[in-house]
């Protein structure tokens, strides 16, 4: 029984308290967490006040969180943890599209639309025509893949950040399906670089550390097809001034794409457009899921 513990003996006691955890992986996680968090407190000589501040901070992160405001994910993002977990788990190699973080703005409530749809939800902006192709690592089309896409408007706001203006309707997001040649295409409006939400507790961290909250301009994609590893990724605008200072560490050179600018004319889907518009075209490569051989 642990009694009369000291700064030097409490860690072993707290680690041992998890010895009977049946699930070996859960035991490993609990015990490593205890070791690291104790070492952290000892290293920085954590004060009572700092500990209370941290507990209050986490409570406020929880209170801020909702299905449309993922403050805990945002906290993980600005600490670099989300991208680290992605890097640990998704060694995609040179033949598959790089992944990156999900971010807090994906929501389940998005319209399922046919290829060619206008997904802007009526939000005004510079027209954008996105064409994509989904292939496997041998260059064969992946038909029937689910393609989730979402992005901000031209002022850098996602639909979920302006529920009153949009009457809670989803905009600039959709779920599409690739055709027999692995193609998908849609119309929307061009996004813009934007600050990660700073009106919650995570914003306090950004201000205290004088970090730029601006994410470079991007479009999100989440590709899923039976038999393939899901791919969560983004495409970034090449000439974006914030590409190298992403506050959530998600930008990658391999995901930089040209947002081609066009004078009024005919869009890739044959639509006549009477204002300047932009196009993005990209080929995504999925990795086949590794099959685990039964012993
Ligand atoms: C996003 O790209 O939507 C995002 C990612 C991380 C934090 C905030 C926003
Ligand atoms: Fe985003």
Automatic annotation (TrEMBL):
Residues 23-93 form the Catechol dioxygenase N-terminal domain. Keywords: Dioxygenase, Iron, Metal-binding, Oxidoreductase. SUPFAM superfamilies: Aromatic compound dioxygenase. Signal peptide: none annotated. Its cofactor is Fe(3+). InterPro entries: Catechol_dOase_N (IPR007535), Intradiol_dOase_C (IPR000627), Intradiol_dOase_core (IPR015889), Intradiol_RC_Dioxygenase (IPR050770). GO terms for biological process: catechol-containing compound metabolic process. GO terms for molecular function: catechol 1,2-dioxygenase activity; ferric iron binding. Residues 103-263 form the Intradiol ring-cleavage dioxygenases domain. It comes from the Bacteria. Belongs to the intradiol ring-cleavage dioxygenase family. This is Hydroxyquinol 1,2-dioxygenase. The lineage of its organism: Bacteria, Bacillati, Actinomycetota, Actinomycetes, Mycobacteriales.
